[in-house]
Write a structure and sequence with these properties.
The structure holds 2 protein chains of 2 kinds. By secondary structure, chain A is α/β, with parallel strands linked by helices. Helix content of chain A is 15%, strand content 28%.
Chain lengths: 132, 400
């Protein structure tokens, strides 16, 4: 299964999908030192986004969140790629300044949590569902 | 896809260094997201995300990297308030560790050629665009003032996107840069007299109640306001932007672009009772005594400081009283002798900063102010109770 999206920041990467049905706020919502989602009541609360292909509808919250993504990258705790339904300023700017591959305009509901994905610029391929 | 000029293409290819390249990448990504068809040259930039309290180590690292990699502003650029008074931080109780990091933030901006005047009222200190100019500003109250009162054109930029505009001299053409998005869509009939900064702040809160249920907040057309001073307009802009998130409004006879449009048919009204309710909402009945008095959200202008000096002259304040303004306005107050009168009363200037961005959470229990915006951030970010009063009553509260 493949999806074609819009490239926000280009790159080629493979990794495991971590899917959130809810928007993500990086500033205040993700701990920049551990990569763990700390927003109370968030579907990903307690999960670590480091090294994952982070899939969520869109960003929310303070524009300082772009800098949080940058800090995650410097700490080696950033997601390996980001897939959005609709990218907005905070996530897009964060991905560019941190050089994290980012694709949007993707029907994210079709991506199974835990699936192995390959991203090559705007093309996302499903390598393996999470069947184990 | 936007077609680039040869100069822009060279910048994107790295001819002007890594910082300018990254900045242009940011703007092109925003252009893609918001379907802009061109990049517009900007004449002025104002950057938010200056307080170390908000930026943290992450923001400081990014700004340092941009400065290290040769970032240099192409247009006149000023800053939003910082987390502290650059000269008087010790007396105001700012911890030295915080001050050290805040100074590193300001130094990174200075190395990029930013004028490090830290204010939410750039239009009072010479960063003053003219009608129709495209600019890239961040501070929400100043964005609203620039669009509505000055007739300049700016989206509400985030810190990194405003910096990107400063380093390239461009912004993508979408949102408030386009005529169709500046058109009024909802008439607000104000059925009561609105006078003074507090009352104009309360009007912003009342309007926000009227549009709260709408997914896309309309540009409002406000009828029934016969006159408004600069001080009243800056207070209104701060309140409207904070409570509705909008960046534009029209008041016929007062704001310059109102002459282009007719009154929208969709109409709501704000009664005297609703305005009083808005005031009461920011003035909850509570037992917590006021232990912090604050004027200067947005930053005060010289006539406001003159009035404070007149009232405080020869008296002593009984509460911690911060007067927040920009460094250039403070210097005028020094020259006029207002600073001496105010400081002799025991009140303090907190220049370059404000009660929204300074790291004062937990310092005070209850703040008196004339600013609806300050009330919002006091109760959310800084967890204080608020007492919302007219300008002169706030000064009297400090003397009580």
């Amino acid at each position: 299964m493949n999806w074609h999206g819009r490239v926000i920041f280009e790159g080629i990467v493979s990794g495991k999908a971590l899917v959130s049905s809810q928007p993500v706020s990086f500033f205040g919502g993700v701990d920049p030192d551990s990569g763990i989602v700390v927003e109370k009541g968030h579907p990903l609360e307690g999960k670590c986004i480091s090294g994952m292909v982070l899939v969520f509808p869109t960003g929310k919250g303070s524009t300082v969140g772009s800098y949080t993504l940058y800090r995650l990258k410097k700490n080696g705790k950033a997601p390996s790629a980001i897939i959005n339904a609709q990218a907005e300023t905070i996530t897009a700017v964060g991905c560019i300044i941190s050089e994290i591959p980012c694709v949007d305009s993707i029907p994210i509901g079709e991506i199974p949590d835990g699936a192995q994905l390959h991203i090559e610029n705007g093309l996302i391929s499903l390598l393996r569902n999470n069947l184990e | 896809m936007i077609s680039l000029t040869s100069q822009q293409q060279a910048m994107l290819d790295g001819a002007e260094g890594k910082a300018a390249q990254k900045a242009l990448q940011i703007l092109l990504a925003l252009a893609k997201i918001y379907q802009a068809e061109e990049l517009l040259p900007v004449s002025s930039v104002q950057i938010a995300g200056v307080s170390y309290d908000n930026l943290g180590e992450a923001g400081l690292e990014y700004l340092t990297e941009m400065a290290d990699s040769g970032g240099r502003v192409k247009v006149f650029t000023t800053l939003n308030p910082a987390g502290m008074d650059r000269e008087n931080w010790q007396a105001l109780g700012i911890p030295p560790d915080f001050a050290r990091q805040q100074i590193r933030v300001l130094d990174a901006f200075a190395r990029m050629g930013v004028v490090t005047t830290c204010t939410c009222t750039p239009y009072l200190v010479g960063n003053l665009p003219v009608f129709g100019e495209h600019i890239a500003w961040s501070e929400s109250s100043a964005v609203c003032y620039a669009n509505a009162v000055l007739g300049a054109r700016t989206n509400r930029e985030g810190g990194p996107s405003a910096l990107a505009s400063a380093l390239t001299g461009f912004t993508p053409a979408y949102g408030m840069h386009l005529e169709e998005n500046r058109r009024p869509a909802l008439t607000v009939m104000v059925e009561t007299g609105i006078h003074g900064t507090q009352s104009f702040g309360a009007l912003g809160v009342s309007i926000s109640r009227k549009v709260a249920h709408l997914a896309n907040k309309p540009v409002v057309w406000i009828e029934g306001i016969l006159s408004a001073s600069l001080e009243e307009l800056k207070s209104f802009c701060a309140s409207l932007a904070t409570y509705t998130g909008t960046a534009m409004f029209h008041i016929p006879g007062i704001t310059p672009e109102s002459s282009r449009y007719l009154r929208p048919e969709a109409c709501v009204s704000v009664s005297r009772k609703e305005l009083e309710e808005a005031c009461r909402e920011l003035n909850p009945i509570q037992d917590t005594p006021v232990d912090f008095v604050s004027l200067g959200c947005p930053h005060l202008d010289l006539p406001e400081i003159a009035r404070i000096a007149e009232i405080l002259s020869g008296k002593k304040v009984k509460k911690e009283f911060w007067i927040t303004t920009s460094r250039p306005v403070k210097q005028m107050a020094d020259q006029m002798g207002y600073t001496r009168i105010i400081e002799e009363s025991g009140a303090r200037f907190a220049t370059d900063t404000c009660c929204v961005v300074a790291p004062i959470k937990g310092w005070f229990n209850c703040m008196a102010t004339d600013s609806a915006k300050a009330c919002y951030y006091a109760s959310s970010k800084n967890q204080m109770e608020t007492v919302f009063l007219p300008f002169e009553d706030v000064i009297q509260e400090a003397l009580r």
